[in-house]
């Protein structure tokens, strides 16, 4: 406890937010948890903390050149509450470690009690900002508290659903109106509400920008995004973005935040646009996220690319190269077969590959987007038919040979059935062709009475060089 | 073809069952590992450590055109002609 508080004092005197936040970390070894918890008891804990804070601040001030580093009384009181809550949470953490080592089921300690005690800590911090005058540079404490609150909430939810499935497999059949979805994430939903409090705490700070809690906003937003995505209510993130853009005028620019926060924010912003099928915006955000991402963060780059590849397919009709996907075996499995079939115009094989990967694609929310890649595969197939048609005799002597631009519908039909071995009606083929023209993937018109497709002499397949 | 498909489906369904039971037990954990953007080990980094500075996205060569002109279109054209004949023949019948 003493060493913790002297690190607290050191950070306070030097105004080092991250150092300060480390003193509130729950990731301690068993011995350290024990050392903190056993250093005082429930009766004297507050007095011990208070004395500790005052003494160590005095020592730090004396040891440094800083003048007048004493904390106001109000603020000391606020921190006493914070560390008191921390001490209690440490007690719960200790209990669960002990019960897991002795395997004793009798202990009352559980992840949900840890969650509750950690929530107290977060509340104490929030009160500290609202009524004890905590300064803005201390916001990393909110990061530590928020981040772990989320972890504990998830653990508590898993723990409860495990217990429930043990107890109530037999009874479950009788409860028809029981909604497992909302029950399952009870703690995490509460966590989202707590994080929202923190969000508002940062957003509503009216202090001048260099002393504002607004500097905490993106970290909290990212935590909220993660939480909403996990709760399967990604759309709630939109409210956050709205609130953010409403206050954007007096918000520091995203570029002035640490890159870890920028990348995470851009990723989620991009995925949100992606889910709304706004692929142009999504591509912008995701490209930015990838560009700025740390080069060694493989997992995160993989996640960014999972959405960026389908974006590229739709917006610029480009496919990932082998080199791009080289470091990511999973993405290769996901995208390479589809890419190959698209490139080769193998329509039927494309359909099969889409089917094959359906579960994975759906899980990653990219199925519908990839499905639209079928147009590109079809375009390439029709393009091959056009190529196979060869050239017409040049009309003028020595003129440049001209591609045959009048292609029988039957040839397109044959090409489509080539892979699937299923014959399509001419009507169906015409419909496909008309759609290609409508989507500007092909230029020309259908001469129905002749059973011909008449393609444009200049750029029959826009953007593909012919 | 159709019967083969059906057979495939059956065997798939049989396989899926035990897997599903496992999946039901811990969907949350599985998603957590798979899908979540990870915390970076460091808070901030220099421009030279970004993906862009290391031959990443900045290089446009990482994205390729979506069509392929390299394949032997002669092959395709013979295939196409055969298929055309087949289609014509089936229509006449």
From TrEMBL, chain A:
Pfam families per record: PCI (PF01399)
GO molecular function: double-stranded DNA binding; RNA binding
Ranges of residues in domain PCI: 263-460
Domain of life according to the entry: Eukaryota
Signal peptide range: none
Family indicated by similarity: Belongs to the CSN12 family.
Alphabetized PANTHER family for the sequence: PCI DOMAIN-CONTAINING PROTEIN 2, UNCHARACTERIZED PROTEASOME COMPONENT REGION PCI-CONTAINING
Protein name: Protein CSN12 homolog
Organism, scientific name: Lasiosphaeris hirsuta
Automatic annotation (TrEMBL), chain B:
Region (Disordered): 1-93
Alphabetized SMART domains for the sequence: DSS1_SEM1
Biased composition (Acidic residues): 31-51, 65-74
Pfam family membership, one: DSS1_SEM1
One BP term from GO: proteasome assembly
Location within or outside the cell: Nucleus
Domain of life (superkingdom): Eukaryota
Keywords linked to the UniProt accession: Nucleus, Proteasome
One of the record's GO cellular component terms: nucleus
Biased composition (Basic and acidic residues): 7-18, 80-93
PANTHER family, alphabetized: 26 PROTEASOME COMPLEX SUBUNIT DSS1 (PTHR16771), 26S PROTEASOME COMPLEX SUBUNIT SEM1 (PTHR16771:SF0)
Cited function: Component of the 26S proteasome, a multiprotein complex involved in the ATP-dependent degradation of ubiquitinated proteins.
Family under the similarity heading: Belongs to the DSS1/SEM1 family.
Name used for this protein in its record: 26S proteasome complex subunit SEM1
């Amino acid at each position: 406890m003493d060493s913790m508080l002297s690190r607290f004092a050191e950070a306070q005197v030097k105004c080092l937010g991250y150092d300060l936040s480390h003193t509130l970390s729950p990731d301690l070894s068993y011995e350290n948890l024990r050392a903190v918890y056993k250093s005082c008891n429930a009766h004297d804990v507050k007095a011990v903390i208070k004395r500790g804070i005052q003494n160590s601040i005095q020592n730090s001030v004396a040891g440094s050149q800083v003048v007048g580093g004493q904390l106001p009384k109000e603020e000391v009181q606020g921190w006493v509450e914070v560390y008191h809550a921390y001490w209690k949470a440490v007690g719960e953490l200790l209990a669960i470690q002990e019960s897991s080592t002795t395997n004793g089921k009798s202990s009352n300690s559980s992840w949900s009690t840890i969650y509750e005690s950690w929530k107290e800590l977060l509340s104490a911090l929030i009160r500290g900002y609202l009524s004890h005058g905590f300064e803005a540079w201390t916001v990393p404490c909110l990061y530590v508290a928020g981040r772990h609150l989320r972890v504990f909430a998830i653990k508590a939810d898993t723990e409860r659903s495990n217990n429930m499935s043990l107890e109530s497999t037999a009874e479950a059949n009788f409860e028809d109106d029981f909604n497992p979805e909302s029950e399952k994430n009870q703690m995490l939903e509460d966590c989202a509400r707590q994080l929202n409090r923190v969000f508002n705490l940062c957003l509503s700070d009216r202090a001048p920008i260099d002393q504002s809690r607004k500097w905490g906003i993106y970290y909290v937003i990212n935590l909220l995004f993660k939480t909403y995505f996990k709760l399967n209510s990604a759309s709630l993130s939109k409210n956050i973005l709205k609130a953010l853009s409403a206050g954007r005028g007096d918000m520091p620019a995203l570029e002035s935040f640490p890159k870890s926060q920028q990348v995470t924010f851009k990723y989620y912003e991009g995925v949100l646009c992606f889910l709304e099928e706004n692929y142009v915006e999504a591509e912008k955000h995701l490209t930015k996220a990838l560009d700025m991402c740390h080069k060694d963060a493989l997992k995160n780059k993989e996640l960014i690319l999972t959405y960026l590849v389908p974006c590229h397919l739709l917006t610029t009709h480009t496919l990932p190269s082998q080199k791009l996907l080289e470091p990511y075996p999973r993405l290769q499995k996901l995208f390479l077969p589809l890419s190959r079939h698209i490139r080769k115009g193998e329509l039927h094989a494309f359909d099969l590959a889409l089917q094959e990967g359906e579960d994975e694609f759906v899980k990653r929310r990219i199925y519908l987007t990839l499905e639209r890649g079928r147009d590109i595969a079809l375009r390439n197939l029709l393009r091959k038919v056009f190529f196979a048609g060869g050239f017409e005799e040049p009309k003028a002597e020595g003129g440049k040979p001209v591609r045959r631009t009048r292609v029988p519908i039957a040839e397109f039909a044959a090409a489509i059935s080539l892979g699937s071995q299923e014959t399509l009606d001419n009507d169906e083929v015409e419909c496909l062709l008309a759609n290609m023209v409508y989507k500007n993937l092909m230029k020309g018109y259908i001469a129905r009475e002749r059973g011909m497709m008449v393609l444009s002499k200049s750029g029959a397949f826009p953007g593909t060089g012919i | 073809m159709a019967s083969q498909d059906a057979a495939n489906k059956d065997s798939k369904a049989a396989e899926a069952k035990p897997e599903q039971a496992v999946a039901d037990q811990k969907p949350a954990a599985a998603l957590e590992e798979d899908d979540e953007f990870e915390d970076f080990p460091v808070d901030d980094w220099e421009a030279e450590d970004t993906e862009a500075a290391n031959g990443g996205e900045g290089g446009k060569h990482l994205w390729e055109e979506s069509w392929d002109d390299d394949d032997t279109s002669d092959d395709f054209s013979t295939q196409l002609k055969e298929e055309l004949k087949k289609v014509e023949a089936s229509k006449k019948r």
